[in-house]
């Protein structure tokens, strides 16, 4: 099984929140937009600065994040992905989610048929289903 991960899946597992994706790392190959790195590290910094975690806890989160991200193949943002993300989708979608969905669509166009879309974001899950992705996590 090949999967596309959005940041909600990584962050829920990283922060040990309720109901993470149960089949973590049972896939053959995992893909994500380079945005996932930015979103993950920005979230860790934001919760550190807000006082929700101290510096030691933030360092532990950064270490775990690094290990988690090492198993993911990152897809750079290309002109084609940016162009697709700027077009209309069948459902309402924010900018970053549109970039994630456009990245996954680009992978399918490149021959990765059967790619499963993993997200805990209900709005993104709906949008992914609307363009025929099999979705898990939401």
Global morphology: globular
What is the CATH third-level topology name?
A: Rossmann fold
Distance between the termini: 18 Å
Largest sheet: 5 strands, parallel
Radius of gyration over all CA atoms, rounded: 15 Å
H and E order: EHEHHEHHEHE
Percentage of residues in helical conformation: 40-55%
Derived structural class? alpha/beta
What is the topology, as strand order, of the major beta sheet? 3-2-1-4-5
Q: In the CATH classification, which architecture applies?
A: 3-Layer(aba) Sandwich
Strand content: 5-15%
| Poorly predicted runs of 5 or more residues | none
Count of spatially separate domains: 1
Question: How would you state the average pLDDT, rounded?
Answer: 93
Tally of contiguous helical segments: 6
The first-level CATH class is given as Alpha Beta
Number of strands: 5
CATH superfamily: 5'-nuclease
